[in-house]
Amino acid sequence: MEIIPNVHLIPNTVANPYLLIDPDGLTLIDAGLPGSHRKILRYMSSLGYAPRDLKRILITHADFDHVGGLAALKAATGARVYASPVEAQAMAEGHASHPLKPRSVITKLLFDLMAGLFKPAPIHADELLSDGQVLPVLGGLQVVETPGHTPGHISLFAPSAGILFCGDSIVSEENGLRGSSGANNWDQVKSDESVRKQAALGARILCSGHGPVVMDATGKFPQV
Ligand SMILES: [Zn+2]
Q1: What is the pTM of this model?
Q2: What is the mean pLDDT of the chain?
Q3: 155 with 198: CB under 8 angstroms?
Q4: 160 C-alpha to center of ligand 1: Å?
């Protein structure tokens, strides 16, 4: 689904991967659940691109629904993988970067079951990202450290298009936006700080890891 020219959401995956198109090739933000590589490659093919046209995969954080398709996608395309040092370490070890905090035995059982079912293959990042770094994507894509949901979570902001890719730091729901919270959140204070930091960027379009893209995001950021 085209969001604006050269920016696409690849639909029907649990966590949204975004495909960015530049003259020198394609960049993907996040890689979806295990098995999502097929959907991503099919989507690229529908736009007329071959697997080798994918040059970079940027990972917002190492949760299984964002890195599940990563190993297969890297093998199929040869794309370079980028992540923050903390998330890269977790990816290399094949687990999430933070322990979940289940509030009940049932939730704990569910989390354990999910972790076993969706254990991503370990993968090494090729490049480590840091706050303020600008990547040569969409005329300059800024790395914004947004810890809270996970310790090394990053978001990516393209000022040229006013578009912010916020991973799971802000969740888009049918009735509006909310900051990361609950049992799946690593640090609530940092999470709230990251929401405020992103609200100040002046993004017009918000692309979350979950839920619908918000096309008129100005003034809609969560008040935390
Ligand atoms: Zn997550």
Answers
A1: 0.93
A2: 93
A3: yes
A4: 27
Q: Which of 200, 101, 120, 187 is nearest to 149 (CA)?
A: 187
Helix 70-77 and helix 36-46: axis angle, to 10°?
40
> From the CA of 61, how far away is ligand 1's center (Å)?
7
Amino acid at 209: G
Q: Scan for tokens 């999430």, then name that residue.
A: 96
pLDDT tens column, 10-45: 987 789 999 999 999 999 999 998 889 999 999 999
Residue 182 host element (H or E): none
Residue 23 CA, ligand 1 centroid: distance in Å: 30
First-last CA distance in the chain: 31
Ligand 1 center–CA 187 separation, angstroms: 13
Q: What is the distance in A from the centroid of ligand 1 to the CA of 120?
A: 14
